[in-house]
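Changelog-linked ticket: adenosine-5'-triphosphate example.
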Amino acid sequence: MKLAILTSGGDSAGMNAVVRAVVKAGILKGCETWVVREGYEGLVRGNTEALAEQSLDEAPVDLSDISASTDRNSNNLIHNLRFGDGDLLKDGTGDHPGTRSLKGRYIVRVGFDDVRGWFAEGGTLIGTARSKTFRTQEGRLQAAYNMIKEGIDALVVCGGDGSLTGADVFRSEWPKLVEALHAEGRITAEKASLHAHLKIVGLVGSIDNDMSMTDLTIGAPTALHRICEAIDNINSTASSHSRAFVLEVMGRHCGWLALLAGVSGGADFIFLPERPPTSDSWENEMCECIHRHREVGKRKTIVIVAEGATDRDLKPIKAEYVKDVLTDRLGLDTRVTTLGHTQRGGRPCAYDRVLPTMQGIEAVDALLEATHNDPSYMIGIQENKIIRVPLMEAVAMTRAVSEAIEAKDFEKAMSYRDPEFKESFIGFLTTSTLEQKKLPSEQRIRVAIMHMGAPAGGMNAATRAAVRYCIRHGHTPIAVHNGFRGLLDDNIHELSWLGVDAWMSRGGSELGTNRTLPSVDLGAIASKFQQHQFQALLMIGGFEAFNSLVILEEGRKHYPAFHIPMVHLPATISNNVPMTEWSLGSDTSLNALVDACDAIKQSASASRNRVFVVETQGGKCGYIATVGALATGASLVYTPEQGMDLDTLRRDVRFLKTRYTLDAKGRSEGRLVIKNEAASGVYTADVMTKMLKEEGGSLFDARSASLGHTLQGGVPSPLDRARAVRLSLKCMAFIEREHAKLLQQPVKTRHAPPDSAAIITIQSSSLKWVPVQEMVAHADMENRRGKNPWWEGLKELAESLAGRPQLVGLH
Ligand code: ATP
């Protein structure tokens, strides 16, 4: 298959990662790959006739230096992979030695290395445009001609709903366009029959997260990072001067950025296009809400306005006007900050590297599997599952949101958004406002909240959300400091609404963590439960929290105090809690790893060819190393699950030698090897580094870097914060449900069922509660990790994208 990829509409972070993944996966699956510069405009312009014959096909790939150890078989593979200069498109001029000028060429054949290192770049390196010509049939006829001339009949489009609609129009019209080209004598009958159908697949590149039927669009997480960074910075000034800030963020028809920024940034009030304030006077509603916050002692006020926000009569709500209202009515010193294009750009966050990579690979599979009768697919994501959905259904639903807004049917608009959107909105109201919805007194609960194990990003955000939920519903949130050890020392206190206000953006653990298990003295722990009248327990932490829950549930046989709802919310950078695909903190640590590796890679290629052996934490769980390798484009990854042996190391050294031999002359390249700290007790990072240094000879040097505790991250990532709020509120709802069931039993003989001690998990496309005893069967208790983790196959994938299996003849 000859496939091409283009980026279209507004640029977004992660588009380069999509191009990289599609090109690499395409080549690995035997396709010829092309990029189209400047979106649909490039497709229409095509390649100038005189230059058309000069494809990259003939660009010399110098194989003369390949080390003698590389066998014939892998040499052929190298030819197929078309390793080339690797910088063909970076500056758009193609003026490097060994590359051809791109002038007059919009459809460019690319090789494996042409997209190397594209991960870390924001925007789109192949350019994007809004093409008027492509909107005309004439333009599309020319585009079809240009594609057929190159032999291409499979197209990946990464853009917004407009771009995907354009792709679908193009595909449905294709047979007619081919017929017309043949009738005009521009293509032969043979070509017409060879290219009778066009295959397309869409990927959504949009910072607004405005596409229906997918949880996230490419670029939206990075934009959210930019906004949260701004809010975190503004927070300190706002607090110092007791000021109010009104932030305008992007989102013409979709309030996702404003909503998630509101949730993750701990804002006081938000304005979204699809959910205007409900009262007749939003000014009163906002002022009452903020006045209440100020009355309880809040020193800062953050209001977020989506650029497309309106009132219920569709009258735009503008940041300047919001500022005037706050100044005039509440006398607040108020400033406006419009984030504008700063939200769009910058280095992609970890999620905008992993998601486009997985989706790009899925896009190639979808093209290879496509038949003429299938609808065109859009690649999306639901929780943690990459999905294919009929492209036009997703576009139609997206449009329906805008239409519902225009028709002032806001309920309908909200109903078309994915369930997470609605949950986030409720999460915002629950955690940001002082509004009370107290339950009848007998249903109110004393909830103990505890952090366990090592700190992880999002722990404090989860606690903040639980505390605010408790206060809203009339429960009593009790902090247990320093885990079970702290409980034994009566280190507990009641938490307040204001007391947790700033916890959203705080890293570490405000409650303090401890690894002591309740088995240290189960009887004493039970008596402390009784003494403090705990009626429910929320544990936020990693494998220790799971282990503790096992012990407490078993302890129910002997201690009535444990016959209460007990939940575990997984939070650990190791992501080693069984059965859940994500834990709080895993996104923060992935971002810390990506930041560190970007800097290391830069330094590694600054002077001469250098391999960096980067050691990660993670205990005996290879999650952070594996997904980190995928997110940073590391060449090799070593995990405790797979271990290390001499045969593999020998092949890996050969791979690195071959790889450096194939690099463009005169360029220095940095490469990463990511190794989990427990991958091997013998082949340590130090041994590996010395070995690579020795073997690299004149080809490459080696250094090591241990990321250690930096991976626990400073400030939690926005996704960890948002996920913390969502999951924490679900935990509280679970506790209420289970408590209500227990209320039906006589107090003295209350017997909590086993499934009232459970862990909230993310499994593929859904959230699931797993009773703790059921989880035990899925746990490798000795190595403190789950069995069969979802990311195990990603090691091979990451190394494939670096070319390892092909270069050592392993695939
Ligand atoms: P963003 O979300 O950033 O606005 P988008 O993909 O929705 O991205 P648009 O400007 O709507 O951006 O579309 C990008 C390009 O897609 C257009 O310039 C045009 O070339 C093509 N396109 C959009 N709609 C159509 C259509 N109905 N028919 C043909 N081409 C279209």
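Closing comment: Example verified and attached. The first helix runs from residue 15 to 28. Residues 220-343 form a domain with the Rossmann fold fold (CATH 3.40.50.460).
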